[in-house]
């Protein structure tokens, strides 16, 4: 099966800092892959390289066979990359529906068509009943779901979720987990940055670990999360008795 997303030898240098170091992996259609790593490991920088907010120093990115390494974020979105951000990008002065339409306009120029696609995306995340309210009054959990809806309105081949559960209480986390699991079961492909290792163990079939910009591990959730190197990266080397 052809990889939906393929990353080959990707690196990014900021002066003397090598923020992403020779990262290679692929994501197949229908996968739900988590990327984990300590704070400052380079995970969000990697997402920015995949979606075009940053250009790599070396390496290549392919989406569905297309070389997108030097394309703009807009052109990458047209080829099937959808994304949410670690810090909410909700347009608070617009309605929930209008926020989702921002994504839909990529492929639907007419207002009616864009609104229809946006309504479908809102229904997928359970926000269709909030379509007419101003986005600024949404709860944090609702804003997270709205960002997922806006990404889905792009009609993406793969959705990149950047800490979509950050700041949520346990009940809200469960709601987002259930949402992502359901969307994945319906055929949506996800690449997810997540810090909650209990969540990662539960819903990820595959986990990639980034440490100091480089790949430390790539495998099943059980194998990776029990890997002594991964445990050490998160909690440090045990002190000698």
Structural notes for this entry:
With 241 residues, the protein is of the alpha/beta class. The protein folds into two domains: 1-80 and 156-240, P-loop containing nucleotide triphosphate hydrolases (Rossmann fold, 3-Layer(aba) Sandwich); 87-155. Helices cover 37% and strands 24% of the residues. The protein is built from nine helices and ten strands. It has helices at 43-51, 73-78, 96-104, 111-125, 140-153, 170-185, 197-203, 221-225, 228-235, and strands at residues 5-14, 17-27, 32-36, 58-63, 66-67, 81-83, 158-162, 189-193, 206-211, 214-219. Strands 6-7-8-3-9-10 form a six-stranded mixed β-sheet, sandwiched between helices. It has a four-stranded antiparallel β-sheet with strand order 2-1-4-5, covered by helices on one side. Strand 1 and strand 2 (17-27) form a beta hairpin. The N and C termini lie far apart (50 Å).
Please give the structural blueprint:
Layout: E1 5-14, E2 17-27, E3 32-36, H1 43-51, E4 58-63, E5 66-67, H2 73-78, E6 81-83, H3 96-104, H4 111-125, H5 140-153, E7 158-162, H6 170-185, E8 189-193, H7 197-203, E9 206-211, E10 214-219, H8 221-225, H9 228-235
Parallel strand pairs: 3-8, 3-9, 6-7, 7-8
Antiparallel strand pairs: 1-2, 1-4, 4-5, 9-10
Helix pairs in contact: 3-4, 3-5, 4-5
